[in-house]
Design goal:
The complex is a heterotrimer of chains A (604), B (326) and C (274).
Chain A (H helix, E strand, L loop, with lengths): L8 E11 L5 E12 L4 E5 L6 H7 L9 E3 L2 E4 L2 E2 L5 H7 L4 E4 L3 H4 L6 H5 L1 H5 L5 H14 L18 H13 L5 E5 L7 H18 L2 E6 L2 H7 L2 E6 L2 E7 H6 L4 H10 L13 E16 L2 E15 L3 E5 L6 H9 L6 E6 L2 E2 L9 H6 E4 L3 H4 L6 H13 L3 H14 L16 H14 L4 E5 L7 H18 L2 E6 L2 H7 L2 E6 L2 E7 L10 H9 L7 H5 L38 E4 L2 E4 L10 H4 L3
Parallel strand pairs in A: 3-9, 3-10, 7-8, 8-9, 14-19, 14-20, 17-18, 18-19
Antiparallel strand pairs in A: 1-2, 1-4, 1-5, 5-6, 10-11, 12-13, 12-15, 15-16, 20-21, 21-23, 22-23
Chain B lengths: L9 H32 L5 H6 L5 H11 L5 H13 L13 H36 L4 H15 L2 H15 L15 H35 L2 H8 L4 H38 L5 H10 L3 H29 L1 H4 L1
Helix pairs in contact in B: 1-12, 5-6, 5-8, 5-10, 6-8, 7-8, 8-10, 9-10, 10-11, 10-12, 11-12
Chain C lengths: L1 H9 L3 H23 L31 H37 L1 H15 L3 H12 L3 H28 L2 H9 L3 H9 L4 H24 L11 H7 L9 H29 L1
């Protein structure tokens, strides 16, 4: 492991403390040391509060919230960052060390053109004239596979998509040929299909520039694709470090092992399915704005149907804007469907809450994505859980207290938690209370809307295990709404894939590994990074660009512009037919029982 | 957004937005006129009784009511009044027995001069204080300015006026405490006589405007794009000038418009104290004598001025913001 | 309870503690004023007028030879209690309407909000002048007028808070549970608005003190024989050239009350942010 030449970046004994308003100070990073050889990508990985971003920013001598950085050495090339003043640091930032932020949407100034900001690292440091810088920027736009590279820079941020913005920010970082690039969760805000492309672009751009890079992330699988070596952090301290492949295969610490386990949900067996269906959604349309002829002005869901049998679980999957949360709101009655029907135990439900009986409302319970906003911050845990007990079951006083304790035990929290305000709980605890409140109603159908997306991986995995365990024990039919197809595959008996408001595929568990799926499902499956450093490379460059546009004719397949197997003459002319293969139902021309081209001909 | 709009000139969309804002302001003004008319018509007893006094016979009152059109239904009177206002004839003052337009003309000009000079002085001061405070957030200077402006916005105008009169007119005898403005006075005399009213109004308005400016700029300084600019090594001065100010322009302008509209409220006290022949003191007279046509006209002028200020701020903010612009 | 309030007050910055002390001082004066005042409020006690402060008349005498301190104490009672009543009324009404609009939404919300927008675009002093001209200025009318003038401002703030809260998931949870509008307004939304509403009530109080004193100063507010602090400034205006205590003390009294309240509210807000 010894390096013959001195490494490009060296950090020794880094500590960062935060001064608190009461005069004391709290260490947020302690005893961090690492060295990165030139041209290598080093990943800093950890959950929230691990100090990963704080450490990365310390490479630029910068600290948010006025933390104090102290270190024996922070060296980047010949720069001794730890002993530089604000004025010297300014000259180095953007020119020799560049930063790529998590959310390009907020890191770009909304009232200036993009290119004026992209060239700034060159112009403010006097490294080039405006004209030269523009030329260089356009070259980078082209290299980063941005559309219309000549003119895209003249737009404002609200005129380009999220994936493009992230690449534009990469151009801003690369433009000054820095020796160190810091990437701070640069793909976390993106949809999984976009993430792959951006990841690919970043990887080759860093390699082409020859710069050393620090890649900050919470996602081991993403990091595995880009990093040479990985540093695992927890609570501001280093847990272990090693080269990517061996760390993934032979983690040394328990913490890394738990991270790995959480990133790879184990597939569960199918629940004992009962034939009787508890929830049936038929041809639902829903959206916002005025409703005319059963269609809303701004449609979100079109013609979605699903069937959920008692005790089973259904996974609803789609990227942001696909309408998956809207589906949960329609079932719960929060957003009345403009057309179609929702039935509970065969009984037709009124579209809105007002027309539903208390008993009907009790049977369908919704657990929201963000536990921070799903619990009233001024209420105590007891208030939150006892309300449905009183409201639905008339349980009050000591009986309610006893039941609250029982429910807390079920969700694995101490009974003492009951007296605390919900605002004082951690994210994972909040989500458990959120779940307990839903269970207090004793529902037959539980709708879980992205219940783990706001949580750290390990905490989220524990919540998923808990829900899975409880629903099996109590026989509650469950709808898991998720953007993560691997979660759905592990936990659900059936999956429903939504694309721009349409159910493009429903697939029962036995068919999860069927050779053919809807092309969008396949794209989703292929886009989920695997815990294998070779995964991204193995995909090759054959990924289709994701264009967030839908065809002008609403009756055509919405996935058409991104579809790799679309055939001219059918897909762009006729609405997609619903085909059924061994229980799989797909909305696609190319997945029919009668093969129309060689692609589908491989099917037995 | 989906259409790149490169073929269509941007000003078409822009004009549409601006026209929309103007129409919205006109609608508000129309609604305000209804409110003011209703409020002024709710007079217990009525104006004819008020003019003639308690000793008048019912016949006299009825005759005057007819002459003043008070026996017409409220809607008719409102429409008549609105049409007359729009045609530049706000009616006749009951008490002064003069055309309201004649009473107002001269005084409106005086008030506008007072407001204009104050606005000019206080805008410069307030922007400086607000921006300096914001970029030195949390410093001793910022905290001191915070307490000072916070106190000034809560001090009644007449205390400020009293103190200034005591200092500049009574003790130092530099400036007159009565601001008589005659039409043929020289510019120097005019400025001298307006100095104290302007000074008092500036104090109050500046404090308010500086606070709002600081809040708007400080809000922008917390945005991630400012951190990004710092991490690109952009000098601080350039961050303020090229990154923060264009984004703060909208809120800051709005803050200025709001504070300037405060001039009108402040002017009521200040004009009265200094016997300044402006619109606000005229309005106070109208209230004292319950001269409703005059009162309605003054109130409408103040509301129009307020709406125009907000409208200007709104339109300039649209021009400064590319997202609203497209 | 009292101990926790005391410890919270001690945690305020200096300016906030000074503000709190001033507000408490004036509240005590307003409530116990009649017991403290050294002379009856209307009695002519001094042969001199506008006499300076002496050991007999701590704040001197006024333009008729009455004791300024006694009149100040009584004036503060009018100012504080009228403004407090009006502020409570304005916030209660504005917030009730705001909750109704935010929870009902749709056309109801639009009509109410448009009406309030119209009222808010009439500068408050102008509006209250029109109302005083129309209705007159008895004590109860003044309180109603001041409250009415500041309802739209409170409505705007309360509605913004409520709309934000109504959009939160916990309100959706309550709706999905089948809770009625009253439960949602009272148990889910309102408890989360208390702190900003209290701050707003404090600000309205400051505005109303300034408005009523201004009106009284113009002779359009509190009418004799009653006198609030603004009236005291007005009736002693002839003492201005000699800088009489009779004109300066009531003006300074108002300033200490409003500045104190402002400093206190600002200190509370600053704590809430961090």
């Amino acid at each position: 492991m010894s390096e013959p030449v001195s490494p490009a970046v060296e950090v020794a004994n880094l500590a960062i403390t935060l001064d608190l308003p009461d005069g004391s100070s709290r260490p947020i990073v302690e005893d961090v040391s690492f060295a990165i050889p030139k041209g290598e990508v080093r990943a800093l990985i950890g959950e929230s509060g691990s100090g990963k971003t704080t450490i990365a920013l310390a490479m630029m001598g910068y600290s948010r919230f006025g933390g104090t950085i102290s270190a024996d050495r922070i060296r980047v090339g010949d720069l001794q960052i730890q002993s530089m003043g604000e004025r010297e640091l300014r000259k180095v930032r953007g020119s020799r060390i560049a930063y790529i932020a998590q959310s390009a949407a907020t890191a770009f100034n909304p009232s200036r053109t993009i290119i004026s900001q992209v060239i700034e690292p060159l112009t403010v440091h006097g490294l080039a004239t405006g004209e030269q810088a523009r030329e260089k920027a356009i070259g980078l736009f082209r290299a980063l596979a941005l559309p219309s590279p000549e003119t895209i820079g003249d737009r404002y941020i609200h005129q380009v998509s999220g994936g493009q913005l992230q690449r534009l920010m990469a151009a801003m970082a690369l433009i000054s040929d820095p020796e160190l690039i810091i990437l701070d969760e640069p793909t976390t805000a993106l949809d999984v299909t976009t993430q792959v492309e951006v990841l690919n672009t970043f990887k080759s751009a860093i390699a082409a520039s020859g710069a050393t890079a620090i890649y900050v992330s919470h996602d081991l699988a993403v990091v595995a694709q880009v990093a040479d070596r990985i540093v695992v952090l927890k609570n501001g301290r280093m847990v272990e470090q090693g080269d990517a492949a061996s760390l993934l295969q032979r983690p040394q610490s328990d913490y890394t092992r738990s991270l790995l386990a959480a990133a790879r949900p184990v597939e569960r067996g199918a629940a004992e399915e009962q034939a009787q269906s508890v929830l049936a959604v038929e041809g639902v349309h829903a959206g916002y704005g005025k409703v005319r002829d059963g269609l809303a002005t701004i449609p979100v869901l079109s013609d979605v149907s699903l069937r959920l049998s008692a005790g089973s679980s259904l996974g609803v999957i789609g990227e942001s804007g696909s309408g998956k949360s809207t589906l949960a709101r329609v079932i719960a009655g929060l957003l009345p469907a403009s057309n179609g029907s929702v039935r509970l135990n065969g009984e037709l439900l009124s579209p809105g809450i007002d027309g539903r009986s208390k008993e009907q409302l009790r049977q369908i319970q919704l657990v929201f994505q963000n536990a921070d906003t799903a619990l009233n911050p001024v209420q105590t845990v007891r208030d939150a859980i006892a309300r449905p007990l009183a409201f639905y079951h008339g349980i009050k006083g000591a009986a309610a207290d006893a039941r609250v304790s029982e429910l807390l035990e079920i969700i694995q929290l101490q009974p003492a938690v009951a007296a605390r305000r919900t605002a004082e709980l951690s994210g994972g605890q909040k989500q458990r209370v959120n779940l307990a409140r839903a269970l207090a109603a004793e529902p037959t159908v539980l709708l879980c809307d992205e219940v783990t997306s706001a949580l750290d991986t390990v905490v989220g995995a524990a919540i998923l295990d808990l829900i899975d365990d409880l629903r099996r024990r109590m026989g509650i039919a469950t709808v898991f709404i998720s953007h993560d197809i691997s979660t759905v595959r592990a936990f659900c008996d059936e999956m429903l894939v939504l694309y721009s408001g349409r159910a493009v595929e429903t697939c029962p568990k036995p068919a999860f590994s069927a050779p053919l799926h809807h092309p969008y499902t396949e794209l989703l499956v292929d886009s989920v990074p695997e815990l294998d450093p070779e995964w991204l490379a193995s995909l090759g460059g054959q990924h289709v660009p994701s264009l967030p546009e839908t065809p002008a004719d609403k009756s055509l397949c919405a996935f058409l512009p991104r579809c790799p197997v679309a055939v001219a003459g059918t897909c762009d002319v006729l609405p997609p037919p619903l085909v059924t293969v061994d229980g799989q139902r797909m909305l696609c021309h190319q997945r029919g029982e009668v093969p129309k081209n060689e692609d589908a001909g491989a099917q037995p | 957004m989906a259409v790149q709009g490169e073929n269509r000139p941007a000003w078409i969309g822009l004009t549409r937005v601006v026209i929309q804002r103007v129409l919205s302001a006109l609608l508000t003004l129309f609604l305000v006129s209804i409110v003011i008319f209703i409020a002024a018509s709710l007079l217990p007893g009525d104006a004819a009784q008020e003019v003639l006094g308690q000793s008048a016979t019912p016949q006299q009152v009825a005759a005057l009511r007819h002459e003043m059109g008070l026996d017409q239904p409220a809607i008719t009177r409102y429409v008549d009044w609105l049409v007359a206002m729009l045609s530049g004839d706000p009616g006749r003052s009951y008490i002064a027995d003069m055309e309201v337009s004649d009473l107002i003309g001269e005084r409106l000009r005086n008030s506008l001069t007072l407001a204009g000079v104050t606005a000019l002085v206080s805008s410069v001061l307030a922007l400086t204080i607000g921006i300096v405070s914001a970029i030195n957030r949390g410093s001793k200077l910022d905290r001191t300015l915070n307490v000072v402006t916070l106190s000034l916005v809560a001090v009644p105008e007449f205390l400020i006026a009293t103190i200034f009169v005591l200092i500049f007119s009574v003790k130092l005898v530099w400036l007159p405490s009565i601001a008589m403005v005659s039409p043929d006075a020289s510019w120097g005399d005019m400025l001298r006589s307006m100095a104290l009213p302007v000074l008092c109004l500036t104090f109050v308005v500046t404090a308010q405007m500086a606070r709002l400016t600081r809040a708007a700029v400080a809000d922008q300084l917390d945005r991630p794009y400012v951190e990004m600019a710092r991490l690109k090594g952009v000098p601080f001065r350039r961050i303020i000038l090229f990154h923060v100010l264009p984004n703060a322009a909208g809120p800051v302008l709005n803050a200025m418009a709001l504070s300037l509209s405060y001039l009108m409220g402040g002017a009521i006290i200040i004009e009265t104290i200094f016997s300044f022949p402006g619109l606000a003191s005229l309005m106070v007279n109208a209230v004292t004598s319950r001269d409703m046509p005059l009162l309605q006209s003054c109130a409408m002028i103040f509301c129009t001025a307020y709406l125009v200020l907000i409208l200007i701020a709104d339109v300039v903010a649209i021009l400064a913001n590319p997202r609203l612009r497209s | 309870m009292i101990r926790s309030l005391a410890s919270r007050a001690a945690a305020l910055p200096l300016s906030g503690r000074i503000g709190l002390a001033l507000v408490l001082f004036w509240l005590v004066i307003a409530v116990f004023g009649p017991l403290i005042a050294p002379y009856p409020v209307g009695r002519f006690v001094d042969e001199e007028v506008f006499s300076p402060a002496t050991s007999q008349f701590w704040l001197g005498s006024d333009y008729l030879g009455r004791d300024v301190l006694s009149r100040l104490i009584w004036g503060a009672r009018y100012t504080v209690l009228l403004a407090l009543g009006a502020a409570v009324l304005a916030v209660f009404t504005g917030t009730s309407i705001a909750l109704f609009a935010a929870i009902r939404g749709g056309v109801v919300d639009e009509v109410i909000s448009r009406t309030m927008d119209t009222l808010i675009s009439i500068p408050s002093k102008i509006f209250s002048l029109v109302l005083v001209a129309a209705f007159g200025s008895s004590l109860s009318l003044l309180m109603l007028i001041a409250a009415f003038t500041y309802i739209p401002g409170n409505y705007r703030i309360a509605r913004a808070l409520a709309v934000n809260l109504v959009g939160m998931d916990f309100v959706s949870v309550a709706r999905a549970r089948g809770e009625g509008a009253i439960h949602i307004a009272w148990r889910e939304v309102l408890p989360n608005m208390i702190h900003p509403l209290m701050a707003d009530m404090g600000l309205r109080f400051v505005f109303i003190v300034l408005l009523l004193s201004g009106l009284s100063f113009l002779g359009l507010g509190v009418q004799p024989p009653h006198a609030d602090l603004g009236s005291l400034v007005r009736e002693n205006i002839s003492g201005l050239p000699q800088g009489a205590s009779a004109i300066l003390s009531p003006a300074i009294a108002i300033a200490t009350l409003t500045v104190g309240a402002n400093l206190f509210i600002d200190a509370l807000k600053g704590k809430g942010d961090s």
